[in-house]
Design a protein that fits this description.
Oligomer: single chain
Shape: globular
Radius of gyration: 19 Å
Distance between the termini: 47 Å
Number of strands: 9
Helix content: 25-40%
Largest sheet: 5 strands, antiparallel
Number of helices: 7
Length: about 270
């Protein structure tokens, strides 16, 4: 049984709130009264709510939403909802923020109509049929339940070789050790899922995601590699790196993001 993706706790909720509003093209949706309360938050958690990617017909379009929960000093929890998409005809992700779920759902419906209609789920979240790795609790914020992996992919040893061939690791902490990589060459099934967690990014002008590649070995053990895909490079080229665990991939994303942010400011 797999564990649900962990949720990162932000040490500075006020900074997270400021970045969220700076990225959004509609910060005016959040009232001054609500902002004053959110600014006092002691903790912030982010969880993926929905995700859809349409590859055909071109161009490829993406849409995903996040729930940002702010915990106040009196333990009261307040929520902002973020919608990211590139369905307005541009190549960059656009971010929108909403103070309530109803407003988010209206915005989602607008975006999904542009992407092509798909059925609504009982919670009002629109999901593409080919999206994998998202559990009901991630989408609706209900009680967490274990999720059984479905190992649908074959040719797993070849998939490991392709991962290693495109990886651009440079001896950073958390990289998979040679023994693990050798063991994975015996895998006979695997599955791939996007990690439901928002990683360090540079707003709408960047891309950063982590994918969990879980392999099933002959003795029925499950072993995962975490692929960090980002464009925090000088030329904006998309590259991939491999890590042995989710936290190492997240740390690498933060490290690359800070370095690229510094380069942009100096430039």
């Amino acid at each position: 049984m797999s564990k649900l993706p962990r949720i990162r706790d932000y040490a500075a909720p006020s900074e997270h709130l400021a970045r969220l509003l700076d990225d959004a093209r509609n910060p005016f949706e959040v009232s001054d009264a609500l902002l004053a309360r959110l600014d006092c938050a002691r903790l912030c958690r982010v969880r993926l709510r929905s995700w859809r990617q349409r590859n055909s017909p071109p161009p490829a379009l993406r849409c995903r939403s996040y729930r940002h929960t702010f915990v106040l000093p009196d333990a009261v929890e307040l929520t902002l909802w973020e919608l990211q998409h590139d369905a307005d005809g541009g190549s960059k992700l656009v971010s929108e923020v909403y103070p309530d779920l109803t407003a988010l759902r209206h915005a989602e419906q607008r975006v999904h109509r542009r992407m092509g209609d798909v059925p609504d789920d009982p919670h009002g979240v629109v999901i593409a049929a080919n999206v994998t790795g998202l559990t009901p609790e991630l989408l609706a914020g209900t009680v967490e339940m274990p999720h059984q992996r479905q190992f649908t992919e074959r040719d797993s040893a070849d998939h490991v070789r392709r991962l290693l061939r495109r990886a651009r690791n440079t001896g950073q902490p958390g990289e998979p050790d040679p023994d693990t990589l050798e063991e994975l060459r015996t895998a006979y099934r695997h599955t791939i899922a996007q990690v439901a967690r928002r990683f360090s990014d540079l707003g709408q002008h960047s891309f950063c995601s982590v994918y969990e590649h879980t392999f099933l070995l002959p003795d029925n053990r499950e072993v995962s590699l975490y692929e960090l895909e980002h464009d925090y490079t000088e030329d904006g080229q998309l590259i991939c790196e491999l890590y042995a665990d989710e936290d190492s991939a997240a740390d690498a994303a933060e490290r690359h993001g800070h370095l690229r942010h510094a380069d942009i400011r100096q430039g």
